[in-house]
Specification:
Layout (H helix, E strand, L loop, with lengths): L1 H29 L12 H10 L1 E7 L11 E6 L6 E7 L5 E7 L7 E8 L6 E7 L14 E8 L8 E7 L5 H4 L4 H8 L1 H16 L5 H9 L23 H17 L21 H8 L17 H10 L2 H14 L3 H4 L4 H19 L44 H24 L6 E4 L2 E4 L32 H19 L23
Antiparallel strand pairs: 1-2, 1-8, 2-3, 3-4, 4-5, 5-6, 6-7, 7-8, 9-10
Helix pairs in contact: 5-14, 7-12, 7-13, 12-13
InterPro entries: Di-copper_centre_dom_sf (IPR008922)
Protein name: PvdJ/PvdD/PvdP-like protein
């Protein structure tokens, strides 16, 4: 009886509490809305907007409507920090309908919008499902389909028409501004891929490696700089150790070699982001199909890494362009600012900030070259399967493949041009204190008060591996490739030593691995 009494004592207050809660909800439903307040999109709305934004092939299944026969073009957009769906539906005969909807009335897989001709009230309503059958493909930011119905707003009893929408894949830069065959052959060569990946990995991983692993890299000749005086790119001394000089020098050397094979012009200014469709339909349409090769690809989604998803959306946003990229663009051409920096400090700032973000802003999702399937977590850095050496693997988020992407040369050319701004700034502020000289065939600067390093690091002097950067004819022997593969396995072996941590720390693109890191 004591147990029954105790349970009754718990149940009765619980029931009363539930009754009061229900009554409060009913009372609240009777109230009129409060004054308006700023409402920003929730994460789910932002993600839905990212999936909808782009160009779609739209077609009615059952029958046509005047102006909407056959395949039509549907352009959808959601503004930055916006909560409404806007766009146009263009028929094959040139008829245009305006699209108007809102994300708040939509759900993750169900969307609604209305269609109206210019100057007329909305005549039709579309309700559609964003299909989940794509699985992994849905996460790549480009693949999706809509299936739904089109109904008459003024004739609700009329049977609706079914329609299908297929999102058009974002064209890669190589489809718009392809590299010339002789340049591509050099860039996709195993030696160049491995060299570029290992050069960055050695510098980026050095600070986190155990001493035994450092000794292993020293034994292979792949320590970043002179033995015992290595210059890591991510440690506490990164701005003072001269690693920024190595970064600027290696990429200038790389640019000079590539430009002997074909013209590779620098960006004169950073490409402007895609305009909101309400501000400029033609600009939106041109960048949606990547007309000039420099449009920002859509963000993809990692199902296990929400922090990365938000970071990537932020980097690709218009707000990031105006708040960060344009600030860097102005700052790194400001004589007053540049005249205060040593060359290594300047290079380190460029590399760890703007450079890494440039790679990820203009990166499209990694795709398996054998079948085109998105690889959301990026290629394993020690996966040297033959398919990854194909020319289609030009993913900007991984040094193994980034240099194969045409956009790489445009923004690295822009970075290299800032060296001349830096030199001119010092000539103006400190005449004669920075002296030009040639180093390994590269126009460079003599060591001194503002240049910390005598001989920048291009790679090892043993095993011949470092010569891959200079050898556009690809005459090195196979043992060099195996040496670089072994060095990469050493550099990344720390990741393999703790497999139990992999679920808690999903693999991220190389240029996103230091996201949020502080030292």
């Amino acid at each position: 009886m004591a147990g029954v009494a105790a349970s009754t004592a718990v149940v009765v207050p619980t029931a009363i509490h539930a009754w009061y809660q229900d009554r409060e909800r009913k009372e609240a439903a009777k109230l009129t809305p409060d004054e308006a307040s700023l409402t920003l999109p929730e994460t789910s709305e932002t993600r839905l907007g990212n999936r909808l934004r782009g160009s779609w092939r739209f077609s009615l299944v059952d029958a046509g409507l005047p102006g909407l026969q056959g395949e039509c073009e549907l352009l959808l957009d959601v503004a930055a920090a916006g909560r409404s769906i806007r766009g146009v539906l263009r028929g094959s005969d040139g008829k245009v309908f305006q699209v108007l909807g809102d994300l708040s009335s939509s759900q993750q897989a169900r969307v609604r919008w209305r269609l109206a001709e210019a100057g007329s009230p909305a005549a039709y309503e579309c309700t559609a499902l964003l299909d989940e059958v794509w699985g992994t493909w849905l996460s790549d930011g480009s693949s999706a389909s809509l299936s739904g119905s089109l109904g008459w707003l003024d004739e609700p009893a009329r049977a609706p028409l079914r329609f299908l929408g297929l999102k058009q894949a974002f064209p890669e830069a190589r489809e718009r501004i392809p590299l010339q065959p002789q340049t591509l052959a050099w860039l996709v060569s195993p030696g160049h891929r491995l060299f570029h990946q290992l050069w960055h990995a050695s510098r980026d991983k050095w600070d986190d490696l155990a001493e035994a692993k450092r000794d292993a890299l020293r034994g292979l000749g792949w320590q970043p700089g002179p033995v015992g005086r290595e210059r890591d790119a991510r440690g506490k001394a990164k701005h003072r150790n001269g690693s920024g000089v190595d970064f600027l020098f290696m990429h200038r050397h790389m640019l000079m070699t590539a430009r002997r094979l074909q013209p590779l012009p620098s960006w004169t200014s950073l490409p402007l982001p895609r305009q909101y469709i309400g501000y400029g339909l033609e600009d939106f349409a041109a960048k949606t199909v990547n007309q000039d090769g420099y449009a920002v690809p859509p963000a993809w989604e990692s199902p296990e890494d929400e922090a990365f998803n938000k970071w990537l959306l932020d980097i690709k946003s218009n707000e990031a362009f105006h708040a960060n990229f344009q600030m860097w663009e102005a700052q790194y051409q400001d004589p007053e600012y540049l005249a205060k920096l040593k060359l290594g400090e300047f290079g380190s700032q460029l590399e760890l900030g703007m450079h890494d973000w440039l790679h990820m802003r203009w990166a499209a999702v990694t795709r398996d070259p054998s079948n085109g399937m998105p690889v959301i977590f990026d290629r394993d850095p020690v996966d040297f399967s033959p398919r990854w050496f194909r020319a289609e693997n030009d993913y900007l988020g991984d040094p193994f493949s980034s240099h194969v992407n045409p956009v790489f040369w445009s923004f690295h050319g822009w970075i290299d041009d800032r060296l001349e701004d830096w030199f001119r700034a010092h000539e103006r502020a400190h005449p004669g204190q920075v002296v030009r000289r040639e180093v390994n065939g590269v126009p460079w600067f003599a060591p001194g008060k503002w240049v910390e390093v005598d001989e920048p690091w291009l790679g090892p002097t043993t095993h011949g591996c470092g010569q891959w950067l200079q050898d556009a004819q690809m005459t090195r022997v196979e043992t060099d490739l195996e040496t670089m593969k072994l060095a990469l396995r050493v550099a990344f072996s720390a990741d393999q030593d703790v497999p139990d941590l992999l679920e808690r720390a999903p693999r991220r693109p190389f240029y996103a691995r230091s996201m949020g890191r502080t030292v």
